[in-house]
Design goal:
Elements (H helix, E strand, L loop, with lengths): L25 H11 L5 H5 L5 H6 L5 H14 L4 H25 L3 H8 L2 H34 L3 H19 L3 H25 L4 H9 L7 H13 L2 H11 L8 H38 L8 H12 L1 H34 L5 H17 L4 H15 L1 H11 L2 H4 L6 H25 L9
């Protein structure tokens, strides 16, 4: 049953949507207001609303994507491209829903879960989400360190230390202005995208096989299941779903329902552009690995091996571009992962910890992996499987909350959107179930 409206024309528990994010500059707020009032059009009107999806998109091109996409391209050529396509469509849907929740209610997904679900469920969700946040940080932290280690011939432990200092510095710099953080992350995303555009020129893919792999689903064998699950976990990220709702909550002041509709329209456009770009980068990663490694180097399963194999195959320039993109991915995604971890703890538990403490705790697993001599790339892939298993938790919560009229008012999900979101959640659950039965030794017909 939909709730009544307050004197601003907004549902009662949505009145705080008019609270504008004070981390934005006055210039950005004024430009946003001009767009909402119809004084600016086109790209100029969209720009003040660009930022949340760009920050979330870095989670979709993080080092976990590098690890899973290299393995997918080297071992299976273009066959698993369809997994990236499906995962990216799911990502667009759920990031848009997360942004919608933040825009309409002015509160984050984690905050809604804390207030609207039974206490035992909330504690369980928080534990799963914290494990996912740590798995995320493990992948992102290791990725940046591997990039530094290979580019500058440093011991991996030393590279981890440098990565910790750099990402902490980026967080401190971003704390001086949220728009500045959005621009920094946007710059890193651009570096990754340009790097892979160059790689496609250096190692052109077989476009016919590329199209077939993107459009025709297939699972060539049993191991392709776990790799597909890892690709989904690397593409649709739990922490990005939580973070996006927080980033959009109260970002721009909405005077009425019409303003909210306009803000949602701008948000949806940004999601399509930012995540569409991230999806193309992921497909380019697999295409590069397929073109460079699948014919004769299918054993390439590690980032380090990929780097050293690229040098004789395509030259030091290609290998250097590959590592620069990995470095940009590791630094930026580690910053975003820490932001998400802060939001998860703060809004689930109403507990805030100092940034340096959060950064220290979440980077310890990465130091442990390196100190124990565990294979870094395999650790990255394993972390993505953990993320995929944790992914249904925020997905289900988002489907439930955005489907409630008492939460969303007249912006409650339509039957079509609800059906699409439920279907996407079932797809993720099915992939996880396939991985589980395979892990316990049950033979899946056709996937021996």
């Amino acid at each position: 049953m939909a709730q009544g409206k307050n004197d601003k024309g907004l549902p009662h528990d949505m009145s705080d949507i008019t609270v504008t994010d004070d981390r934005l500059s006055d210039r950005t707020r004024i430009a946003g207001r001009a767009a909402l009032d119809g004084h600016t059009k086109g790209l100029r009107a969209l720009l003040p609303f660009v930022g949340p999806a760009v920050i979330a998109s870095i989670a979709y091109v993080d080092p976990g994507n590098f690890a899973t996409n290299i393995q997918a391209g080297a071992q299976y050529g273009y066959s698993l491209l369809w997994v990236v396509v499906i995962a990216n469509i799911i990502a667009m849907l759920f990031q848009a829903l997360s942004a919608r929740l933040g825009v309409i209610t002015g509160r984050s997904l984690a905050a809604h879960c804390r207030d609207r679900f039974p206490r035992p469920v909330v504690w369980g969700m928080w534990v799963v989400s914290e494990v996912a946040a740590m798995a995320t940080d493990l992948a992102e932290f290791l990725g940046g360190a591997i990039g530094l280690s290979l580019l500058f011939d440093l011991p991996l432990l030393v590279s981890l230390g440098v990565t910790a200092v750099v990402t902490y510095g980026l967080m401190v710099l971003g704390g001086r202005g949220f728009r500045r953080m959005e621009l920094i992350i946007g710059g890193f995303v651009a570096v990754i995208g340009i790097s892979y555009l160059l790689e496609l020129f250096i190692a052109p893919p077989a476009w016919g096989a590329f199209a077939r792999g993107a459009l025709i689903p297939s699972l060539p064998d049993g191991p392709s299941i776990s790799l597909s699950v890892a690709i989904v976990g690397a593409t649709v990220m739990p922490h990005a779903i939580y973070l996006h709702s927080w980033l959009t909550s109260g970002r721009m002041a909405a005077r009425d329902i019409a303003d909210q509709r306009k803000i949602l329209a701008y948000s949806n456009r940004e999601v399509l552009i930012a995540l569409g770009f991230a999806g193309l980068v992921n497909m380019a990663m697999i295409a590069m690995a397929a073109a460079a490694f699948h014919a004769g180097h299918t054993d390439v399963a590690e980032i380090e091996t990929a780097y050293h194999t690229l040098i004789p195959l395509l030259g030091r320039g290609a290998a250097g571009v590959f590592m620069v993109s990995l470095l940009a991915s590791g630094f930026s995604s580690s910053v975003v992962g820490t932001m998400a971890g802060q939001v998860i703890m703060q809004d689930f538990l109403h507990v805030s910890v100092p940034l340096w403490l959060r950064r220290t705790v979440t980077m310890l697993p990465a130091f442990g992996v390196v100190a124990l001599g565990v294979n870094a790339t395999q650790s990255l892939v394993a972390s993505q499987i953990v993320l995929s298993i944790a992914l249904p938790v925020p997905m289900i919560a988002l489907v439930v909350l955005t489907g409630r009229a008492e939460v969303m008012g007249e912006f409650v999900n339509t039957a079509r959107v609800r059906a699409a979101a439920i279907t996407a959640t079932v797809v993720v659950l099915l992939l996880n179930a396939l991985l589980l039965v395979q892990t316990v030794g049950v033979t899946v017909p056709g996937l021996d």
